[in-house]
Amino acid sequence: MASGDTAVSICNKSLLLLGAESITSFTDGSLTGNACNVIYNDVKKSTMAMYAWSFTIAKKELSRDSETPNSEWDYQYLLPNDMLTGVPRAVRTSSNSGSPVIKTWEIGQATGGYAVLLTNETSIFLDYQKEVAEGNMPSYFVQLLAYQLAWHLAEVLTDQTTKSEYWRGVALGVAVEGYRGGYFRQAVNIDSAGQTPSNIQDYLLTDVR
Predict the structure, then answer these.
(1) Which string of DSSP letters, residue by residue, matches 77-100?
(2) How far apart are CA 64 and CA 116, in angstroms?
């Protein structure tokens, strides 16, 4: 893990790449601090959601909501508060190793406006991607995030679209690669060394689609 990393330190890595002044906080009153404050969380979440990074995968038994669905389903379950994409990686009825994935569910909205998982099953265990704090991000992901931020900050801070395009290429490669190349592909290769073949296959099938 890249211990000691914070949102500010990761942004400063990007600012160094752009030849811009470093910041002390997102609210230090500088143009760069304000720009980082506006884009950082969105870029972080979108970069995490690009791939099923091993360090973001979590498992949890869901709690059944006290409300009854106003639909064809019998039960609704509360989704984890730290869920990244709102879309489960897998839904099961047991926590036992190798338990089968079920397809009889959907994500809907409760009458209170919050998202729930709807199903007829009496117990639900979820595999999902969670948001991860900076101190728990591995170094290869921190590097990718720094490149991603450099891409998004470049035009704002330098007024040069060519710099923005350059850092997008460093981060993600080019259009013919579906923007799944560059350092992103290297980071995926590093991360996939610690994942099961099924997780890697899921990514490859998604990439083809």
Answers:
(1) EEPPTTBSSSS-SEEES--STTPP
(2) 9
Instruction: Compute the average pLDDT of residues 132-139.
Output: 95
Give the three-class secondary structure for 64. strand
Q: Cβ of 184: how many Cβ atoms within 10 Å?
A: 21
The pLDDT value recorded for residue 195 is: 64
| Average pLDDT of the segment spanning 19-40 | 96
The H or E element spanning position 152 is: helix 139-158
Confidence of residue 171 (pLDDT cuts 50, 70, 90): very high
Whether the Cβ atoms of residue 119 and residue 101 lie closer than 8 Å to each other: no
CB proximity list for 49: less than 8 A, separation 6 or greater: 84, 85, 129
* Count of alpha carbons within 13 angstroms of residue 91, beta-carbon side: 21
Nearest-CA neighbor of 15 among 200, 158, 174? 158
Sheet of 75-78: strands edge to edge?
75-78, 115-119, 105-109
Judged by DSSP in three states, 120 sits in: coil
Dist CA 30 CA 183 (whole Å): 29
Q: Which of 178, 192, 144 is nearest to 17 (CA)?
A: 144
Query: CA-CA distance, 155 to 15, in Å (whole number)?
Result: 12
